[in-house]
Write a structure and sequence with these properties.
mainly beta; nine-stranded antiparallel β-sheet; four-stranded antiparallel β-sheet; globular
Length: 364
């Protein structure tokens, strides 16, 4: 469809064409293939469910390169395709079946996403300071930036490396205290040609662990969630450790490089960051693996209740009480958007709060 957007020019407001209309655009085509296997063992004390799937998306809506004469960089088309392969395993079992009953459940999920067609070749999107790349043969939205190798500890070390950036027609050489960016091309100049895939936000495996223990009128139910292997862009730390202006910074910058010979992972503070030490690189990519006690509930069923009710249960529930992770951000379990391009981008998202609830449940 043709649409227009507002634009101001020399103080005058008007409407301009918002994009190139494509009359041939059509719906995406999704083909799903799945297979499942369910089994019960040991007189149904153990249940196992295994599901595998293969999804193919053709005529995927993507951006394709437009002719320069059109005045636009891209237009919307059915120029993409991708496939998703996944496996879901669920195991539930009665571990103890006596006066004390203990049920334990485990879910394990894994998927692999791969772009199989992209008419525009390579698509790079800038999101909150990060560059995510979509390319044939890769998952959607992998992190694309510079590799680093620490900080130049001395001026002599930086001089021997001889790396530089171009400021117009002037070469500016890295010095002591600057980040050592990996020169992938071997040309000496650090530029966009040296960028590589530095992280994949898709986890290796994820799922949950459930446990329910009961004895007479007392029960304890717990649920853990976990994720292993997904990379995260810590945008919060990017803002608080860039040291390029007057913005507030975290205490981590107290360990910045200050004297020749100092060994540290934090570069020197330079107004305006002329060498681009804070550019998007693996310095800001972290392992987002975690194990979280999502919720736990302790309940007590009153043995004697009035005839007017069937049951009365008292309970106390805690949420997000414990999280085990090496991620330095506020919360490794977050969701900024449903778009796969935003997976793993932690853009100053509020953490999930810890909470405790007291309640009573009356059955009528």
């Amino acid at each position: 469809k043709t649409y227009y957007v507002a634009q101001s020019f020399l103080g005058n407001n008007g409407l301009v064409l918002g994009g190139i209309p494509n009359a041939e655009i059509g719906p995406e085509m999704l083909t799903k293939t799945s297979i499942g296997l369910d089994g019960s063992f040991f007189k149904e004390r153990l249940q196992v469910s295994l599901d595998a799937y293969h999804h193919v998306v053709n005529d995927m809506l993507t951006l394709s390169h437009a002719m320069p004469s059109s005045g636009f960089d891209y237009y919307l088309s059915n120029g993409g395709a991708m496939k998703n392969d996944g496996l879901d395993l669920t195991v539930n079992g009665r571990i103890v079946n006596s006066a004390i009953k203990w049920d334990l459940g485990l879910t394990i999920s894994r998927y692999k996403n791969e772009v199989t067609r992209l008419d525009c070749g390579t698509l790079e999107s800038d999101l909150n300071g990060a560059t995510v790349q979509t390319k044939v043969g890769q998952p959607i939205g992998v992190f694309y930036g510079y590799q680093t190798n620490g900080v130049y500890t001395t001026q002599e070390e930086a001089g021997a490396a001889g790396k530089y950036i171009m400021d117009g027609s002037v070469k500016r050489y890295f010095s002591g205290g600057d980040i050592q960016f990996v020169d992938k091309t071997g040309e000496g100049e650090i530029n966009e040609k040296d960028r590589v895939v530095i992280g994949d936000p898709n986890p290796d495996v994820f799922g949950g662990i459930m446990s329910a223990v009961s004895w007479k009128t007392v029960s304890l139910e717990t649920r853990f969630t976990y994720s292993l292997g997904g990379d995260v862009f810590n945008y919060t730390r990017y803002l608080l450790e860039s040291m390029s202006g007057f913005d507030n910074q975290s205490q981590a910058v107290l360990n910045r490089w200050q004297v020749d010979g100092q060994s540290t992972s934090i570069p020197k503070a330079t107004w305006g960051d002329p060498m681009g030490n804070s550019r998007f690189s693996d310095r800001w990519i972290e392992d987002g693996s975690y194990l979280r006690l999502k919720d736990v509930t302790l309940s007590y069923l009153l043995p004697n209740v009035p005839d007017a009710v069937k049951s009365v249960r008292l309970f106390v529930t805690g949420e997000n009480l414990l999280t085990l992770t090496n991620y330095m951000g506020a919360d490794p379990e977050f969701s900024q958007s449903e778009s796969p391009l935003y997976y793993g981008v932690d853009a100053v998202i509020c953490p999930q709060p810890k909470a405790v609830f007291l309640g009573i449940k009356i059955g009528l």
